[in-house]
Design goal:
about 80% helix; 11 helices; mainly alpha; single chain; globular
C-alpha cells in the first residue's frame, strides 16, 4: 500500500467518522422531533430531509455548491466574514457525507423512537420526570438498537460517498481524494491493481457494517 492509498484510506475514515458524529447528534434530535412533536410543516421537513436519499448524488452536491460555494447563499456570507471557503477542502467532504447519510439516521432512529411503548413514556411523566429526563431514561435506552443500526448505516454510507463529494470537495490528490474518488482516478488511469485492492477493501468494510446492522436488527426482534 503506497502513501497515496494510505492517505485516501485515512482521509475516508476521518471524513466518515466526523460526519457520523454530526449525523448522530443532529439525526437523533430531528428524529425525536419528527416522532414525538406535532407541528405545522412537519411533513415538509420530513420530505426535505429525505430528498438526498432519492436525488442523484450529483444533484445533492450541486445544491451544496449553490448553498455553500464561495458565491453561494450561505458560503458568500461566510467568505465575506472570514475570507475562507469550505469548497475543495476535506470539510466539504464531511458536509457532503453528512447530508447524504443524515436521512438514514433519521429514518432508522425515528422508527425506533416511535416504537417505544407510550404507556412507559406516560408513566415516566406521571412519576414527575421532565421531558428531557424521559428522553434519556426511557426513550433513548428503549430505542438504542434502532439508533445503533442507524449510526452503523450512516458510517457505511459516509465512507462510500462519491457524487456529492466530487461536486463540492473536488478530486484533489493528497487533499480531498477519499477512497471512492481515488478509485475513480485509478480506474481512469488504468492502475487496476491498486483500484482492485481499494474496491475489495471498501466492499469488505461495507459488508462488515451490514452484518453488524443485521445482527442488531435480529436482536431487536
Amino acid at each position: 500500500m503506497n502513501d497515496a492509498t494510505l492517505f485516501s484510506l485515512r482521509l475516508s475514515l476521518q471524513v466518515a467518522t466526523v460526519a457520523t458524529v454530526l449525523v448522530m447528534l443532529v439525526g437523533i434530535s430531528v428524529a425525536y422531533i419528527l416522532a414525538r412533536k406535532d407541528f405545522r410543516g412537519r411533513v415538509l421537513l420530513d420530505i426535505l430531509i429525505t430528498l438526498p436519499l432519492v436525488l442523484p448524488p450529483t444533484v445533492t452536491g450541486y445544491y451544496l455548491v449553490i448553498l455553500f460555494g464561495r458565491n453561494g447563499l450561505i458560503g458568500r456570507f461566510f467568505y465575506d466574514l472570514t475570507g475562507w471557503s469550505i469548497m475543495f477542502t476535506w470539510y466539504a467532504a464531511v458536509l457532503a457525507s453528512f447530508v447524504v447519510a443524515l436521512p438514514l439516521m433519521i429514518k432508522t432512529a425515528r422508527a425506533a423512537i416511535e416504537s417505544v411503548d407510550k404507556n412507559l413514556i406516560n408513566a415516566s411523566y406521571s412519576l414527575g420526570h421532565s421531558e428531557l429526563e424521559t428522553v434519556f431514561k426511557v426513550i433513548l435506552p428503549l430505542s438504542r438498537k434502532g439508533i445503533i443500526a442507524g449510526v452503523v448505516l450512516s458510517f457505511a454510507r459516509a465512507l462510500g460517498e462519491f457524487g456529492a463529494t466530487l461536486m463540492i470537495a473536488g478530486n484533489i490528490p493528497g487533499r480531498t481524494d477519499t477512497m471512492p474518488l481515488a478509485i475513480y482516478t485509478l480506474a481512469n488511469s488504468g492502475e487496476w491493481s491498486t483500484a482492485n485492492f481499494m474496491v475489495l477493501f471498501l466492499t469488505l468494510i461495507s459488508g462488515f457494517f451490514l452484518y453488524i446492522t443485521t445482527r442488531v436488527g435480529m436482536r431487536a426482534v
